[in-house]
Amino acid sequence: xxxxxxxxxxxxxxxxxxxxxxxxxxxxxxxxxxxxxxxxxxxxxxxxxxxxxxxxxxxxxxxxxxxxxxxxxxxxxxxxxxxxxxxxxxxxxxxxxxxxxxxxxxxxxxxxxxxxxxxxxxxxxxxxxxxxxxxxxxxxxxxxxxxxxxxxxxxxxxxxxxxxxxxxxxxxxxxxxxxxxxxxxxxxxxxxxxxxxxxxxxxxxxxxxxxxxxxxxxxx
Amino acid sequence: xxxxxxxxxxxxxxxxxxxxxxxxxxxxxxxxxxxxxxxxxxxxxxxxxxxxxxxxxxxxxxxxxxxxxxxxxxxxxxxxxxxxxxxxxxxxxxxxxxxxxxxxxxxxxxxxxxxxxxxxxxxxxxxxxxxxxxxxxxxxxxxxxxxxxxxxxxxxxxxxxxxxxxxxxxxxxxxxxxxxxxxxxxxxxxxxxxxxxxxxxxxxxxxxxxxxxxxxxxxxxxxxxxxxxxxxxxxxxxxxxxxxxxxxxxxxxxxxxxxxxxxxxxxxxxxxxxxxxxxxxxxx
Lengths: 220, 284
Prior knowledge:
Number of helices of chain B: 14
Number of strands of chain B: 0
Order of helices and strands of chain B: HHHHHHHHHHHHHH
Strand content of chain A: 25-35%
Structural class of chain B: mainly alpha
Oligomer: heterodimer
Helix content of chain A: 25-40%
Strand content of chain B: under 5%
């Protein structure tokens, strides 16, 4: 689904965090938000997800005006830098959480939920690890569980906040290539935040550079 | 041979033994011995006298009142404690430092002063005294006053136990739950609660131990009406001051001490049983 952001602005008190952001992202595009820390890239990502309130402007997902929708209503797949997996749940329960918390009317049956969870674990190449707990997994495995969990809700868009930031260099490189491949396979509109220029250019269809809460440049 | 490469972090044997001996001696003289004496005194006139003292109708009323007070105060303070900890650990707002300091107030103010504060508010000559008596509502020298005093004194236990735990855990899991479509209520029960449950239980146990044992604040507000507003600690004091009921005082005291032991034992059992889970929750 395409994303269009118009005149988006946000202030922390009197300090502007985002200024007049305009950004159009085509359906199925993989875009990198590149910038130094404090440039506003994570704030923008969180604003798109609804985790951060905005003071100005609008956010559309396709024809849907998401500006006033709550986090839950926006249905975005969000992946956190430090995974944010539910520690007390096993891998399968983590992945299926978004399905299990649905209202009864739209919730699939228990067997269907399990089937979809296992299918997603297969997709992120973690077959057979469904009974493990997050603490028993490596960093790379945890981040793939987080991705599967985000995909489970069939999100309108996929938002990744420094998804490889907490991983060592070798795993980061592997996961990068794998994510690009996965994106080509499933085709979700995806924005990911990074401060690593080579990562941004290697992975994304388009790199959007941010500085001081503004979009500085967009490179194809 | 192993001793040739002594671990530099381990003290030599004589120092180790000295430290252990000092600790044990201190614990023995100041903690264990007094408790043993309570039980020895309680049973000094035989088992029959012990149970006879506990069967006294005023004493039984005191036990009931103490249990009732704890049964009201502990759940309420669990609720308030979770709410306060949640607000402080997970939100940024003006006056947060003030709220945090206020939670500690019952720890820093003498319980007697806490009791007097409520008398000043709700007593016959207090701020709301006239209005209360006009509407025939009794707070001071009645159950509501005792519960209020207990609530005040035991307020910090749950909140203080939870705040560092919740702060360490941050809000990312909650945010993840929201993006996955969970409402606030589901998020709380499925994500927040499982992460704090052992800390919460620990806080509740400590709160309960204090609620049953509180003397000062309750003493001011209770009015010491035997069989009616005397809680266990107050009844113990009353019996203790009565020359004929000296060993009865220790009988009730031993029962109160026993309630404390059960709480401590329960706490240690939980720590032993779920220690790895507790460590995992704190460590991640």
